[in-house]
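Tutorial handout. Part one gives the primary structure; part two gives the three-dimensional structure as tokens.
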Amino acid sequence: MPDNSIWFLLVGGLLCALGALGGIMSERRRLQFVMREQAARNSELRNRCTEMADLVERVQAENKTMSSFLVVLPDVVRQLNSHMSQRNIPALLLSTVDQIFEPSHILVYSTRGKGELVLTHAKGVSEGVGTDRTIRFGEGRVGLVARHQMTMDRDDLQSDSLFLKIAHDRRDPFGVSLDLIAPMVHEGQTMGVICLAGVGRKQHDAKRMIKLVADLGSLAMSNSILFTRLENTANADSLTNLSTKRFLNQRMGALIHEAERAGTPLSVIIFDIDHFKKFNDTYGHLAGDGILKTVASLLKSQLRGDDIAARYGGEEFVVVLPNTMKEDASRIAEKVRKAIEAHPFIVGGESTRPVTVTLSGGVAAHLVDGTSSNEILGAADQALYLAKERGRNRIVQFRSRYLSEDEEIVTGA
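Part two.
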């Protein structure tokens, strides 16, 4: 009997121990399940915290971009509303989008002629690449945006949309991958295109923001063209339709002041028709007036939108070239000289016949050859005198008397 009790006690103790062990294992499994659930919750919380941090970072970046936009915009509007030269508007637009978006590349194109864009200002393009690169409307993505007047971002440029169906050439200029392209449109006319690549400040309203900048730029360009046209009409010489001497003297002072403030170059050319008195004596003053009109028209056709051409007196013409180096002014003067020489001038008399007319020209530059209007014009006039002394029908750059004769630059016949 005692032996049975011992066995009962042993079996009972073993069962109790097994029951306790089962309870421990069950509790352990329960705890493991709770820990796994807690780990999953912790992971979810970490993911949500990361998402919240990313969201806060995006919001902060967007707020920073929007703040930059709101800070920059009033000053841009003020400058564009002033009488800004058409040539200086693309530089202001480049500076504006650079401050707002901080891109690695900026390309600002202006419309030239019919259906052609010319690159006027750029950021991120190598020094060896000139800013006179052209794109025709419909050529590549930039040309397509210009033709269809659509503002596009990277999603639009890469999506399988109507854009991809009508774009036969989807290459971007200079091998950069563009993020934003906005046309400058005024009254249905494309006046230029702004392109951005490598945008540093992302913004969900980027298309609207760059479109607003592009619209301001197109409005400023239109106003500048209209103002220049009205100003030239009000101050035009009655015979040649060029500016008058009085108007030129007024504008030249303002342009010199602007060049000094902005640190940009300015050059002046003085042209004189060779042997003009002989034309008048031979064919009469009416024929001479016809020659003056034709020379003025050909001269104007070789200049740019904000260059100023004036009849300075008799057969003498003065051209003021803002933002132009002396060497570039000489090239422009040579283009004018060749255009005049190649043109068949028709004069009347006993028999109507073509005659050859030639020009001589002198070139001088602000700061290089003088600081005031009188000094620059005087230097250009001395160069003109030298061109006539050397046989006429040529362009001469002014050089200081301290330079040797070999250092003077002469172009032409």
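Part three, for discussion. Confidence is low (pLDDT under 50) at residues 402-407. Residues 237-412 form a domain with the Alpha-Beta Plaits fold (CATH 3.30.70.270).
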